[in-house]
Amino acid sequence: MKTHDIAELVALAAIWGASFLFMRLGAGEFGPVALAAARVGGATLVLMPLLAWRGQLGELRRHWRAIFVVGAANSALPFLLFSYAALSISAGLSSIFNASTPLWGALIAAWWLRDRPTPARALGLAIGFAGVIGLAWEKASFKPGGSGWAIVACLAAALSYGFAANFTKKRLQGVAPLAVAAGSQLAAALLLALPALVWWPAAMPSANAWAMVALLALLCTGLAYLMYFRLIAHVGAANAIAVTFLIPAFAVLWGWLFLAEPLTPAMAFGCAVILLGTALATGVLKLRR
């Protein structure tokens, strides 16, 4: 990769790492449903005019059914689940569980797309899921006020991302990336509109909470999608997915700087094990024969 591509990859990781901080700061006043709905609604307002300007609305009309599924699995559901998790666990811990997304993607690809993993990738899946289970076991508590259901929500969100990646590969191969990005946000906004009206906060959220929503929508969703798809076009999907390895570092950093969230030894070790397994499972790290 060229220097400016590496710089953009790091910038994207910093932006997506910050999304966990913004959810943590906004979820308390908005609630998870309204926060997720406002996020995808704002992103739709950014991406749909750009799609129309590029003359790609026809792509959206031709593939709207598949794009609608991607909107549900890649935006509406995971954004809602991570917003719920942000009510009770740290931004850093949420991002570490999010890093298991490629593991779920590889597992689903092996089962659904018959993409059988090599021995090295199978070893990576075993290592990665061992790290996920170990960290969840150490952190989860299902007592009142515990973090158990928040961790389940994070893992379900990562699973949903993994399904969406495989569904996109199977059903939307060759479709303009911007059409998938904009259409999926529109679909997510439509799916969450009615639930958001039902669960809209009784008290008007503060200006600070609205600022978090704006940053989530414009920066972490609208701009981030454009950067991500640009990276895929320039350096390929295999290199662009390396952003997954950098997101937890930034999420932990932002949480420590702005919320004084600690990084415990268990979190650091669990993160290292998950990322090692992910590197093997995705082929980023290869074993010698």
* Low-confidence spans: none
Quickly count the helices: 13
Distance between the termini: 26 Å
User: What is the element string, with H for helices and E for strands?
Assistant: HHHHHHHHHHHHH
Return the average pLDDT rounded to an integer: 88
Structural class: mainly alpha
Quaternary state, please? Answer: single chain
What gross morphology would you assign? Answer: globular
Count of the separate structural domains: 1
Rounded to an integer in angstroms, the radius of gyration calculated over CA atoms is: 18 Å
Number of strands: 0
Q: Estimate the helix proportion, in percent.
A: over 70%
Question: Mind describing the biggest β-sheet?
Answer: none
Textual characterization of the structure:
- The chain contains 13 helices and no strands.
- The protein has 289 residues and is mostly helical.
- It has one domain.
- Helix 1 crosses helix 4 (64-85), helix 1 (3-30) packs across helix 5 and helix 4 (64-85) packs antiparallel against helix 8 (148-171).
- The longest helix has 29 residues, at 207-235.
- It is globular, with a radius of gyration of 18 Å.
- The mean pLDDT is 88.
Summarize this structure briefly.
This protein has 289 residues and is mostly helical. Helices cover 80% and strands 0% of the residues.
